[in-house]
Design a protein that fits this description.
With 402 residues, this protein is α+β, with helices and mostly antiparallel strands. The chain contains eleven helices and 19 strands. Helix 1 runs parallel beside helix 7. The longest helix is centred in the N-terminal third of the chain and has 16 residues. The protein binds flavin-adenine dinucleotide.
């Protein structure tokens, strides 16, 4: 038969099975990547990903696409560095076009404490082999000439941590690429299947209740982003996670002017320009817990004013679109993943405002845990019981808002 396409890039439909070796709840990046690596690295293919809406409909398809490895603690630098490396060859690995572009990320300091913070970040990164350098104000102006170095006359830029590998990548393509590649290896991805309950027998997880009936499972992974506590509540597990909305907006397309990704620690804002020319702006989480994904005018007003302070040319651009997603925030701004107190039930969560860049590393490490029962050393620091053991991984300063 004439083969018109090199490989399948769309998502197949399968009849829903009655049981699988592994059931993954949530068709976001983390769930789909775990499914892919289970099949690819460990030969575990009797796997179903259950997504109640469409794949990538959660944070994975709503984020601002920033990839970076410039964190602060040894545990997180190593973890995000692994993810960054996997992202670098992901398009080739999955045979999927992802528009990855290294832009260089500037993290501006407008105050003495932030100068100390960004200097420390650069030194700590260098120690672990991550390319971050501290730039003084004239060097910042050279790297990003579009920047108003006075920030609207309000908070002059005094320096910045510069992370040249900082990149963007098309977020939907990450979800679709993993899903299509996992399906080619035998994994099933079911959209429109909502998990409504978890079934435990003799202290161990045996399957999930869904809107399409019960599905048996050897192991169950919850990878539902901001909804994680709804899932863990089903079995009485209490997680130190609160869910906050996070908003962003894009302007209409503009000529290519901004090569860098520019974040300001003091203004709580970051700006980049996408491949189609839109200026993309993100900021801090909404200051209240909610499952609402409605965007708000106060966010737009405050955030666009801060963006214009940094880039005055943006004042003449019109807003094209704004949106909101949910963030599963942890007290230390680090992920929460691994085994739970229920046998054969695992959680990938605590991805907050920072989890898109973590998808490949989290996926491959979670697949290793599910396949072998061993917690990989890169994952161990992020265990669910770390707060009880007084082993927080404090990343608030460098997790930032993206
Ligand atoms: C505006 C915004 C900007 C961001 N910017 C960045 C950034 O620049 N860089 C970065 O690294 N991170 C960023 N993030 C964070 C990042 O998007 C998330 O951490 C990441 O996408 C989480 O992926 P996930 O797979 O865990 O969850 P999700 O992508 O949210 O996927 C979870 C899925 O589970 C499904 N689900 C929920 N409940 C059920 C159920 N009961 N049954 C079946 N399915 C269910 C949902 O429908 C959803 O599709 C941003 C987030 C937002 C909102």
């Amino acid at each position: 038969m004439l083969k018109l396409f090199r490989r399948e890039t769309h998502i197949q439909s399968h009849p829903l099975g009655t049981s699988y070796d592994v059931v993954i709840i949530g068709g976001g990046g983390h769930g789909l990547a775990t499914a892919y690596y289970l099949a690819k690295e460990f030969g575990v293919t009797n796997v179903a990903v259950l997504e109640r809406s469409y794949i990538g409909s959660g944070g994975t398809g709503r984020n601002t696409t920033v990839l970076r490895a410039n964190y602060k603690t040894p545990e997180t630098i190593r973890f995000y560095q692994k993810s960054f490396e996997l992202y670098a060859s992901l398009a080739q690995e999955l045979d999927y076009h992802m528009l990855r572009a290294e832009r260089g990320l500037l993290w501006l300091a407008h105050s003495e404490p932030q100068i100390r913070n960004q200097r420390e970040r650069a030194l700590q990164n260098q120690h672990f082999g991550v390319n971050t350098v501290f730039l003084d104000a004239p060097q910042v102006a050279e790297v990003c000439p579009q920047l108003d170095m006075t920030a609207g006359g309000k908070r002059p830029v005094l320096g910045a941590a510069y992370h040249p590998p900082g990149a963007i990548i098309r977020h939907d393509a990450v979800a679709w690429g993993y899903a299509a590649a996992a399906q080619r290896l035998g994994v099933q991805v079911h959209q429109g299947v909502a998990v409504t309950g978890l079934r435990i027998e003799s202290g161990r997880m045996v399957g999930v209740e869904t809107n399409r009936g019960f599905i048996g499972a050897g192991k169950v992974l919850s990878a539902v982003g901001g909804y994680v506590t709804q899932i863990t509540d089903m079995v009485g597990i209490s997680l130190p996670i609160v869910t906050h909305p996070l908003q962003a907006f894009v302007t209409e397309a503009y000529k290519p002017v901004l090569d860098r990704i520019v974040a300001s620690a003091d203004l709580h804002i970051y700006v980049s320009q996408g491949a189609r020319g839109e200026l993309l702006v993100g900021a801090e989480i909404d200051p209240f817990t909610s499952y609402s994904t409605r965007s708000t005018f106060p966010f737009l007003a405050s955030c666009s004013a801060r963006a214009i302070d940094l880039f005055p040319f943006m004042a003449k651009l019109r807003i094209l679109r704004q949106w909101s997603g949910l963030c599963d925030m942890t007290p230390d701004y680090s992920p929460l993943m691994g085994v739970t107190e229920v046998d054969r039930f695992y959680v990938s969560s605590g991805w907050g405002t920072w989890g898109f860049k973590a998808i490949p590393a989290s996926g491959i490490l979670m697949a290793e845990l599910l396949a072998t029962g061993q917690v990989p050393s890169l994952m161990a620091p992020f265990a669910l019981d770390r707060f009880r053991r007084d082993r927080a991984v404090p990343e608030r300063a460098s997790a930032g808002t993206h």
